[in-house]
Amino acid sequence: MQERYNEMKKNWTRINEKLVDRQKKLEIALDDAINLNNDMQSMTRWLDNAENYLSNLPQISRLPDTLNRQMDSHLAFVDKVGGQREVMSDLNTRGSKIQFTCEKKDAIPIKNRLISLKHRFDKIVNRTADRTK
To answer: Which domain of life does the protein's organism represent (predicted)?
Structure first.
């Protein structure tokens, strides 16, 4: 009887340890998912602002002073786009990691949102490069 009790106690301890371990893993996964979602929302806002900026740019001036100001402004924007390239790469990496660890029904919206962000970002990069020419 004592052996049976000790065995059950040992199993109960093992189960509790597994429970705590799984809970920690789930909390980490939840934090990762929340951070990814927040960063995706931030990227969406940045893309909205960048698209508005590019849409509202005036025509390229023929006056030297105005042209120099436009070039300086555009070069600053190009630097911002370059900085966001790293953010986009990080989002893709983190999103792919989460896609592999979650169920397929949850991975599909993440994948679609990442593709949408990537497509919008590529459009901004192309429009910025075209304006640089």
So the answer is: Eukaryota
